[in-house]
Amino acid sequence: MTKKNKDKEIDVTEEIAENPKEPSTPEEKGIDQAEEYLNSWKRCQADFENYRKMQSENSKQLMGFATENMVLQLLPILDNFHASTDHIPEEQKDSAWVVGIMHIQKQLETFLKDNGVEEIGANVGDKFDPEIHEALSHGTHNMEHGTKKTEDKVEKIVAKGYKIGNKVIRAAKVVVN
């Protein structure tokens, strides 16, 4: 429905939508106010639910950072256990103190596994992958002979790498050739 106002046409339906009809009776005013309160309450409830979800996500992230920090402090200890148990003389492998040390090493590995820490599978001969490997040095035989390298391969593993889920927390430290 349109009506003319001097030089321009005005759409009356738009005018009504922009200026809704004022309630005429106290009952209508009460109903409108109740609807306004209800809508406000629903918005507040949705905002609170969003806040609660955000806080839950923040708590998970905080726990992840704390776990990662703890693991990064424990890994050098585990590295030392591996280094010491790798050099046990053959004639002492069955002695009580070695068995005890091996048991402590196993407990530490189990603790890390129970907290979601996984060892990154790195083996000698694998193709060097900068996502999971940290090259400490290059082997000398390619440099000495002046040959072109076709592909870097892991020559030696100096320290194991670890991840939590899909996140690498410490890359495997390797020598590549």
Outline the structure in words.
This protein is of the alpha+beta class. The protein has a domain at 119-177: Nucleotide Exchange Factor Grpe, Chain A, domain 2 (Roll), CATH 2.30.22.10. The protein is built from four helices and eight strands. It has a three-stranded antiparallel beta sheet. Helix 2 packs antiparallel against helix 3 (96-114). The radius of gyration is 34 Å and the shape is elongated.
User: What is the CATH C-level name of the domain at 119-177?
Assistant: Mainly Beta
Please give the largest β-sheet. Answer: 3 strands, antiparallel
Number of strands: 8
Order of helices and strands: EEHHHEEHEEEE
* Portion in helices: 40-55%
* Uncertain spans: 12-17
Distance linking N and C termini:
83 Å
| CATH H level, superfamily name of the domain at 119-177 | Head domain of nucleotide exchange factor GrpE
Measured on Cα atoms, how large is the radius of gyration? Answer: 34 Å
Strand order of the largest sheet: 3-6-7
Q: What is the CATH architecture annotation of the domain at 119-177?
A: Roll
DSSP strand content: 15-25%
CATH domain topology of the domain at 119-177:
Nucleotide Exchange Factor Grpe, Chain A, domain 2
**Mean pLDDT, rounded to whole units?**
84
Q: What would the principal axes of the Cα set say about the shape?
A: elongated
Number of helices: 4
